[in-house]
Design goal:
Blueprint lengths: L2 H24 L3 E3 L4 E3 L2 E3 L1 E6 L9 H10 L4 E5 L2 H4 L14 H10 L3 E7 L13 H4 L11 H20 L10 E6 L11 H17 L6 E4 L9 E6 L15 E6 L10 E2 L3 H13 L4 E8 L33 H14 L1 H4 L5 E6 L2 E9 L2 E8 L6 E5 L2 E5 L3 E5 L7 E2 L7 E2 L11 E5 L6 E4 L10 E3 L5 H5 L5 E9 L11 E8 L3 E6 L2 E7 L7 E8 L4 E9 L17 E8 L4 E4 L5 E5 L2 H5 L13 E2 L10 E8 L7 E4 L6 E5 L2 E6 L26 E2 L8 E4 L8 E8 L9 E5 L1 E9 L21 E5 L5 E11 L14 E3 L1 H8 L4 E5 L2 H4 L9 E9 L1
Parallel strand pairs: 4-5, 4-12, 5-6, 6-7, 7-8, 8-9, 9-10, 10-12
Antiparallel strand pairs: 1-2, 2-3, 11-38, 13-14, 14-15, 15-18, 16-17, 18-19, 20-42, 21-41, 22-33, 22-34, 23-32, 24-29, 24-32, 25-28, 25-30, 26-27, 26-29, 30-31, 34-40, 35-39, 35-41, 36-37, 36-40, 42-47, 43-46, 44-45, 44-47
Amino acid sequence: MGRKDILAVFLLAILVFEGYFWERGLSTQVTYDHRALVIDGKRRILQSGSIHYPRSTPEVWPELIRKSKEGGLDVIETYVFWNYHEPVKGEYYFEGRFDLVRFVKTVQEAGLFVHLRIGPYACAEWNYGGFPIWLHFIPGIQFRTTNELFQTEMQRFLAKIVNLMKEENLFASQGGPIILAQVENEYGNVEWAYGIDGQSYVRWAAETAVSLNTTVPWVMCVQKDAPDPIINTCNGFYCDGFTPNSPSKPKMWTENYSGWFLAFGYAIPYRPVEDLAFAVARFFETGGTFQNYYMYFGGTNFGRTAGGPLVATSYDYDAPIDEYGFIRQPKWGHLRDLHMAIKQCEDYLVSADPIQQPLGVNLEAHIYYKSSNDCAAFLANYDNFSDANVSFMGHLYFLPAWSVSILPDCKNVIFNTAKVVSQRNIDDVAFARNRSVIEFSWASSKWSWYKEKVGVWGNNSFTESSLLEQINTTKDTSDFLWYTTSINVNENIKLGLAEDVYLVIESLGHAALVFVNKRLVGFGYGNHDDASFIFSEKISLNSGNNTLDVMSMMIGLQNYGPWYDIAGAGIFSVILSDLMKNAKENLSSTEWTYQVGLEGEFLGLDKINQANSPLWTQGSTIPVNQTLIWYKGTFVAPEGKGPLSLNLSSMGKGQAWVNGQSIGRYWPAYLSPSTGCTENCDYRGTYGPFKCQKKCGQPAQILYHIPRTWVNSGENLLVLHEEIGGDPSKISVSTRTGQEVCAHVLEADPPPVDSWKSNLDFRSQSPEIRLTCEQGWHITSINFASFGTPEGDCGTFRPGSCHTSVLSVVQQDCLGQQHCSIPVSTQNLGDPCPGTPKSLAIEALCSA
């Protein structure tokens, strides 16, 4: 063997050796004990956040995940949506927004872990809870219970996803990011309804999951009877009082609601960050080691993915990253600081169980010791109203009501949940009208339209001698079902000729347009909590034959509750009533003709290939405020790289498409109740979804997200199907070019968490204001800067009686920067009023 051969063999050996250790280095072992998940032999404190891949687009996944990582997350959680991955039995789809493998790999590239909640029941305010509609039509099937037909299909899909992940080497033991998997979802909330079969189903689901050999732990959320080795976890607004069902399992929180979902006809819910941070800190204080925000980014229910009934298209959830992908401040920043503070305590939190120490009424400490003189502590005041001063280990501490202070050395407070020092966005609505928004509006002459026929429109209609349930009839191929019958006053109706009578229609939901003799007589609808409704209207019938056409509408299939899969929809009773003559005529069992869907759907009017069809009418005056009409227009997207917002406040109810892509259902005509809202909700005390609401008396949603990748540089096609009447000439499309930010920090505030060092006394460090723009934007102007006693709030700051202008200092440090920091101290800013407590307030503009 020559020298070259020896060298080649030597190099090959090195490559094989390095490859062997590279593969082993990538492989990760995940187990658990009573304290925490154990990753490669080390207990871990993990912060997680929910991002559902179909609620955004692949092009922005990396940016969302990057922002999540910068916000202090270790794990990204997502459901898996069976109905879109297997729309037809045996036919799978994993492309575009539903490319699950690409999403998981994108998380891995960012260096984060994945919790894959396979389910396959998701809930998630997602259509049919994530189950495919074809499952419903298997004869004899019953969902989520001991039913062989259902279990066979569920096991098949679980295996499909697990095997897909294995094929792509995505489980931790294969070098992938998946460290957790979930089977079922919140079954404990409905298990009672299924009796003994429900209990058997839980055991079967657990055994089935474990048999798939993922090599990572499985969890069941809200499942007290989850059998070993499945970890039962908590979901809710607070989980500090949760205890696992076995002393060998860690305390885990899989859904910490950052806000709440939005429904048409309801006010907009939000959750103050002080309360959210309090809940998280209390959880880790009391022994938790894994918590997940539901949602960290909520996104958008594109198309007909929204569940029901009446869940809105926006799934913003008041999350730390808003529907459009912008960071929501101060929620994102305050939680980032909290995560960093908890990380400072990680070695203590995983070393031992906490020791509880009472400090007074509604006051307590939890202490984590590594040794007798080395500890970290959490001090909690869980009183709803009263602040407190407490003594702990020889020192005095001030605890605001409903707050937790974190002390990584049992001495110095580096974070208090009620003290928000992170920056705020002045324009917290992503597309509020301000100087950072550019807009495109239509002229009425640019629109074309197509008027839907009322009632039966095609030769695929059919007749039955009774009222049919809607879901079983449409099979969810469309939101719409026409119910059509004739009323012959002379022959069939025992009422006086041409007399006024009442038409009473009872429906299981969700909405209906009613026409008599092809003329609209009214619109009935339910709400999210009760989709059923009764329509009652006085009508006039002609002598002889009359037509009754009812357009019944679905707004998302039910996604939650016991036996939710058999919840019905559509009309179940039609009665004519003459109150004067005390006479009634029941039309429910007469002959009805049915037409599934709209003619415009059948013709494909939402598709790009129909944009130049002669079906469309164009004229100088666009018809407005008409029912069942299609509109078509074109627009040029405002310049920029960011997402777009379609303002549909002038429309009634319908669906919208951009370049053939559905951006979802709209319903701005449905106003929320006029009372029950507050713009400044008190964070103290237990939170619930209706505690903090805004926009009372207004539509739940008027702005609709258009991903930038869905539009072209030239003209773009917008198609609307308007159901109850609106004016498309007032629609606009906008994008954001910047944001206004502000911050207000006291000279005595704790320093930023990332500057805290255990070997330094934090009192020797200065707090600071940190301003950060979205990536691609920079600070272009400082609109206000005052050190002293500035008054007002963000957006309305003004100098106080003690004031020194620090504009030049802030400009020097911040202008042209994506982010900057200003120490809040008299040494840095001067002292306009010695002996007076001072603060620094800044307002700035970020733009491209």
